[in-house]
Design a protein that fits this description.
The complex is a heterodimer of chains A (318) and B (337). Chain A is built from 11 helices and 12 strands. By secondary structure, chain A is an alpha/beta fold. Chain B has 337 residues and is mostly helical. The model of chain B has no long low-confidence stretch (mean pLDDT 87). Classes of the chains: A alpha/beta (318), B mainly alpha (337).
Chain lengths: 318, 337
């Protein structure tokens, strides 16, 4: 096993009474790719913010660690990892400040976190613009964000994520705000750049197609806990946790009839006791409401359900 | 950008034309007979009629309006009924004093108001925020003339560290007029003693005038910063590793002040009308004291001229604000607003 570049260990995050993340562990091996999937409200953004060292005001961390390059990001507010973790945000339209030149905004990141003079930085940035296939890379330096299209802005942000030569790229659904044809280009670009530079990739998504084509392994979050994790192929071909199975059955490509999961993700302030999925789970029984399911190791993956070997009743998958 | 500036200037012209016509209409609905006022108390009806003919007041109203427009455009505001001197000349003497005072106040209000609003927003609902709120509510609530007298009592009378009234120590005389602004002319003349004296004289009236403007600017900056802090790009910049100070003082503030800048343009009108009271208390020889004197002596030519000049200055300031707006946010000029 290759040593992980990023390792989240039994991380819990609370904001007031809300238990956003509970005992979440995951690891991204150097040069590897990990996808994190889950419905809205499962804690994906808080997980990202913990990794980036920008947890919101008032967030408490009762336990756990986020180790990057051997140091705990939570301990120093992310200072040691700045520049070493590149971040590609979800919405390229809202993530750049409209009143500053896009190039200057990236140069400011380099000024703080990359070695070299401003002249070096400009040269390197033009090179990066070329690498992300931005048209007219030299002229792009002087343009404001609104002078670029959505896809071009996402390319700018990818260049920004790469500007300090990071070891890890963290991408938060980087294509949801873009149209379908641009989505494919951006994904191919990310994949190509990560492979060419030997970057590890942590990819938050709820698109299984993206997951299958981009990520070697996957972690499925439900209501702030890990439901199932393992190699992507295995998990997609043979999901074991009842939540993963029903989630995949919801996907239009796979479902014979359009299925759904009854109920909704519980609010972070009102998490049920025991297994958090049990109120919606067809396999649930008495002890599911009492005991937090311990992760079980099963054929190279981790499943937080003791009944994962049982078949789901037909109605649940119909 | 050049096109944008040209468009703003051209758009200001109809506003000025409207102002000229409005002042003309106003002058015709003011009660009292200007010819009688000009002629004096002892005039006979024949003398009044002669003056009416002399000033063209017996001509058809439309003809008078055209004449008025032509005169104003050529800088001819007529003769003051009070002093008998050309109004344009008197205004030319006094305008710089008012500009010096209002710009000093505006500068003070901006340079203090924006940082105050920023620190208040960064300490949202914390102690700093509360202190700034107290200051700004106070600044808006205190009457200018009262504050002026209190400042005189404390700083000029009791402590005796600042002058009581006027623009400069009389024995020093005046620097040769270039701009009419003593702070500028004294430096151009190479007279630091005059500059220092002018500085000391402008402090109390400028502070009086600046306080309500400062309060408004602080409040608008605070809400602008709070709104900007919620934006995705701020979160992104933090994730990307911007420094705290740079993030707040430059990255956030530049977005936040767009609203404040518009407000500064509007505030300028309030500053000029506030200057009337402040000039009176501090014996400041500007347009405010001139307007008061014109009102008291029913000198309607002088009054109209003051109204017009103030309106023109206001228009110029707001064109400048529009240009500043476009420099701060490049999208403004491109939207072609």
């Amino acid at each position: 096993m290759i040593a992980p570049v990023l390792s989240v260990q039994r991380l819990s995050v609370r904001i007031g009474a809300a238990r956003i993340l509970d005992d979440v562990s995951l690891a991204v091996p150097a040069g590897g790719t990990l996808g994190v999937v889950g419905e809205s409200g499962c804690g994906k953004s808080t997980l990202l913010r913990a990794i980036l060292g920008i947890l919101p005001r008032g967030a408490e961390v009762p336990g756990g660690a986020v180790l990057f390059g051997g140091r705990d990001i939570l301990a120093d507010g992310g200072a040691s990892a700045r520049g070493r973790i590149g971040f590609v945000p979800q919405d390229p339209y809202l993530s750049l400040n409209p009143v500053f030149r896009a190039g200057d905004q990236i140069l400011e990141i380099m000024r703080r976190h990359a070695p070299g003079t401003r002249r070096d930085h400009r040269a390197r940035l033009v090179e990066l613009f070329r690498a992300v296939q931005l048209p007219e890379p030299e002229a792009a330096l002087a343009k404001y964000p609104h002078q670029f299209s959505g896809g071009q802005r996402q390319r700018l942000l990818i260049a920004a994520a790469l500007c300090c030569d990071p070891a890890l790229l963290v991408a938060d659904e980087p294509t949801t705000a873009l149209d379908v044809t641009t989505q494919r280009e951006i994904l191919a670009l990310l994949q190509g750049l990560a492979a060419a530079r030997g970057l590890a990739l942590l990819f938050v998504t709820h698109d299984f197609g993206v997951l299958a084509s981009l990520c070697e392994s996957v972690t499925v979050l439900y209501a702030g806990r890990v439901a199932e994790s393992g190699p992507t192929r295995d998990v997609l071909d043979d999901p074991r946790h009842p939540y993963t199975r029903m989630l995949l059955a919801c996907h239009p490509d796979r479902a014979t009839a359009l299925a759904g999961i009854p109920g909704t993700v519980p609010a972070a302030t009102a998490q049920p006791d025991g297994c958090r999925f049990h109120p919606r789970c067809p396999l649930a029984r008495g002890d599911c409401a009492l005991d937090v399911p311990q992760p079980v190791l099963h054929r190279g993956r981790v499943i937080a359900c003791p009944y994962h070997a049982e078949a789901l009743p037909e109605v649940a998958l119909a | 950008m050049a096109l944008y500036i040209l468009r703003r200037v051209l758009l200001a012209l109809p506003a000025l034309l409207g102002l000229i016509l409005l002042t003309f209409v106003l002058s015709r609905v003011i009660p009292g007979d200007p010819a009688a006022a000009l002629a004096g108390d002892a005039a006979t009806p024949a003398q009044i009629a002669a003056i009416r003919a002399q000033y063209g007041l017996d001509r058809p109203i439309l003809e008078q309006a055209v004449v008025h427009l032509r005169q104003v455009v050529t800088g001819d505001f007529g003769t003051s009924a009070f002093s008998g001197r050309p109004v344009a000349e008197e205004i030319w003497q006094r305008l710089p004093a008012t500009l010096e005072l209002t710009f000093a106040a505006l500068l003070l209000a901006t340079l203090l108001g924006i940082p105050l609003g920023l620190v208040a927003a960064l300490d949202h609902n914390g102690p700093v925020d509360h202190v700034v709120r107290l200051l700004s509510v106070g600044g808006l609530a205190i009457a200018g003339f009262w504050l002026a007298i209190m400042l005189q009592l404390v700083f000029a009378m009791d402590l005796d560290i600042l002058p009581l009234r006027g623009r400069i120590d009389v024995p020093l005389g005046l620097p040769p007029r270039v701009t009419g602004l003593l702070l500028v002319d004294s430096l151009l003349a190479g007279r630091p003693d005059m500059f220092w004296s002018a500085c000391r004289h402008v402090v109390l009236p400028a502070v009086t005038l600046a306080l309500p403007a400062l309060a408004t600017i602080a409040r608008f900056t605070r809400s602008g910063v709070l709104e900007t802090l919620q934006k995705d790009f701020v979160l992104y910049a933090r994730a990307a590793g911007y420094g705290r100070v740079r993030l707040a003082a430059i990255y956030v503030l530049r977005n936040a002040v767009t609203v404040t800048v518009t407000q500064i343009g509007l505030l300028f009108g309030a500053l000029i009308s506030g200057a009337v009271a402040v000039e009176a208390v501090f014996d400041w020889p500007g347009l405010g004291t001139y307007a008061v004197q014109a009102i008291l002596s029913a000198d309607y030519k002088a009054l109209l001229a003051v109204t017009l000049v103030v309106g023109a200055v206001y228009a110029v300031v707001n064109v400048a604000v529009d240009v500043a707006q476009a420099i701060i946010d490049p999208r403004v000029a491109e939207d072609g607003r």
